[in-house]
Amino acid sequence: MQDGAPSHTAIKSRRLIMEHFPGRAVGKHFPSPGHLMAYSPDLTPADIWLWPKVKSIIFSPSREPFTSIAALKRAITFAFNKI
């Protein structure tokens, strides 16, 4: 499973995939690998780790909605400085 297709989310399917591809399956029901797959031109470190982390800081539930582009830019700068 490399495409995250919802048709592969049944427990039996996930067990079979993990049995044949341990640590290499990518999808919302599989743990995220700490590294890139060797031949994955569509994924970069920013896709796997950086952007999800930045978005979780910027759009945390406790944060007020942004009222301007300047406020969003300050939040993005804050998130990068925090990381």
Q: Calculate Rg over CA atoms.
A: 17 Å
How many angstroms does the end-to-end distance come to?
Answer: 31 Å
Oligomer: single chain
Could you list the spans in which at least 5 consecutive residues all have pLDDT below 50? none
Order of helices and strands: HHH
- Percent in strands: under 5%
Rounded mean pLDDT is: 75
Strand count, sense and barrel status of the largest sheet are:
none
Number of helices: 3
Question: Approximately how much helix is present in the residues?
Answer: 40-55%
The coarse silhouette is: elongated
| DSSP summary, beta strand count | 0
Task: Offer a few descriptive terms.
mainly alpha, elongated, 0% strand, 83 residues
Question: What's the layout of helices and strands?
Answer:
Layout: H1 11-20, H2 45-58, H3 69-82
Structure description:
It is a single chain. The chain has 83 residues and is mainly α. It has helices at residues 11-20, 45-58, 69-82. The protein is 46% helix and 0% strand. The protein is elongated and about 50 Å long. The two termini are 31 Å apart.
Write a brief caption for the model:
The protein is an all-alpha fold and 83 residues long. 46% of the residues lie in helices and 0% in strands.
